[in-house]
Specification:
8 strands, six-stranded antiparallel beta sheet, 2 domains, globular, alpha+beta, 12 helices
Length: about 425
């Protein structure tokens, strides 16, 4: 059997938290960070939601030998979950892997529905009180209207034109099950108060859906702020921190989740399918021999094209950033000093070395009369080399890290390499030009 791995996107719940548990509508979006699963014969330990979903999918499709290895690193920062639904995405990817291995086409609506149902039931093994809205985003993709009453109602949505959505890491993780538990305790302890809070949340959630349907970006922003206020009141009543203490400009969902920023336009269409590209993100089959984190999963920061979640407010700056900045400043200072003195001392040194070079016999591997070993030693001792080295190191590092082209450690190594080549090239050019 040719086993096939799969991936599924994370989610951002834009509006409807908590209220969705009592039948109010919610708006959720799939994001362009994904959880990937791959088959293994080593029987690695599997998360409970993955193990449960795997059993359900096998019961529907047939047995697939082996266990699944889960890579959810894209939905975490170090060991901290970012509130992007990694467990739900893992469940959806697990079901997709089983169905794809049995030759089921994941573009078939009936298959997608089956993947969703298996993932929903499997995820309920760890979150029985949840609504399943995060599973819907991971299994179906795009922007969705979600409502759960006697059954599950899911409807695709189109983002209003000009709407810009930024996901903001607030610096505080929150466990959904614990927060939901506190809200349910409030319902048991003070049903009247709970009813008032729920009515306010439900009304705002419906207004949010209506604003989405009408394509009004301004109304979406206004209602988002209103919902954030209602969430704060619910959190105070339940003893749960339903939003961060430092509120973003317009409104914020719970502390570990995305937040709206308060520009006059919030904006992103549906998430990007990986590795293929389309306007809707669904679990994608992938060959079992793919690397655990293929390059296609690296986040793009393109603006207005994806619902993206990159480095955001509240992230602690990496030590590499400080190193880049320090090297850039030092390089600029050294370069300014070198230009100010106009290289007078170096010119004198070059004349002396040129005179010495003319007295030396030519040897294989020499450059302009200077032996290869001597050239390396003199290059390393040259102020020009270190001036260009530090300058290029700082600039290259800042550019690479700022564009998110690679991780900071790799950017550091690349910056050192570029700087060394630039410094050596500058020294060689000066020597050749003065010969």
């Amino acid at each position: 059997m040719n086993r096939t791995g799969a991936s599924a996107p994370g989610k951002a719940l834009l509006c409807g938290e908590y209220a969705v548990l009592d039948g109010a509508p919610a708006v959720v979006a799939a994001v362009d960070r994904r959880v990937t699963v791959s088959w293994s014969d080593d029987s690695p330990p599997m998360p409970p939601e993955v193990e449960a979903t795997l059993g359900l999918a096998r019961a529907r499709c047939g047995h697939v030998p082996g266990a699944l290895t889960v890579d959810a690193s894209a939905l975490r920062r170090k060991d901290i979950k970012l509130g992007l639904g990694s467990s739900a995405a893992a469940a959806a990817a697990t079901a997709a892997a089983v169905f794809a291995t049995h030759g089921k086409e994941l573009e078939d609506p009936a298959v997608v529905r089956s993947v969703f149902e298996c993932a929903l039931e499997g995820h309920a093994s760890i979150a029985p009180q949840g609504s399943g809205v995060d599973v819907a985003a991971s299994a179906l993709g795009g922007f969705l209207k979600f409502r759960r009453g006697n059954g599950v109602e899911v409807q695709p949505l189109a983002a209003p034109s000009g709407l810009c959505i930024e996901l903001v890491w607030t610096g505080h993780a929150a466990r959904t099950s614990e927060l939901v538990g506190k809200v349910l305790e409030l319902r048991e302890r003070a049903p009247a108060d709970y009813g008032q809070h729920l009515a306010r949340l439900s009304a705002a959630a419906q207004d949010f859906v209506d604003a989405f349907d009408e394509g009004s970006a301004a109304d979406v922003i206004r209602v988002a702020a209103s919902y954030a206020g209602a969430m704060a009141a619910l959190g105070d009543a339940a003893g749960a921190q339903a939003r961060p203490s430092s509120k973003p400009s317009s409104g914020a969902p719970r502390s570990s989740q995305a937040a709206f920023r308060g520009a006059q336009s919030l904006a992103a269409p549906a998430a990007e399918t990986l590795p293929s590209h389309s306007s809707r993100t669904r679990p994608q089959p992938r060959p079992s021999n793919w690397p655990a984190t293929p390059k296609g999963f690296i986040l793009s920061r393109s603006r207005g094209a994806h619902l993206a979640c990159g480095r955001t407010e509240g992230d602690e700056p990496s030590m590499f950033i400080y190193l880049y900045i320090l090297s850039l400043v030092l390089g600029a200072v050294l370069l300014a000093v070198a230009l100010f003195f106009n290289g007078k001392r170096d010119d004198a040194d070059d004349q002396t070395r040129a005179h010495d070079d003319t007295t030396r016999p030519s040897q294989v591997g020499q450059l302009d009369g200077v032996g290869g070993g001597d050239f390396v030693v003199r290059t390393i001792r040259s102020r020009r080399f270190w001036t260009f080295f530090v300058s290029f190191f700082g600039m290259t590092g800042l550019v690479l890290d700022g564009l998110d082209l690679m991780t900071p450690p790799v950017a550091l190594l690349v910056a050192i390499g570029v700087a060394a080549v630039a410094g050596a090239g500058a020294s060689a050019a000066v020597r050749i030009g003065s010969s």
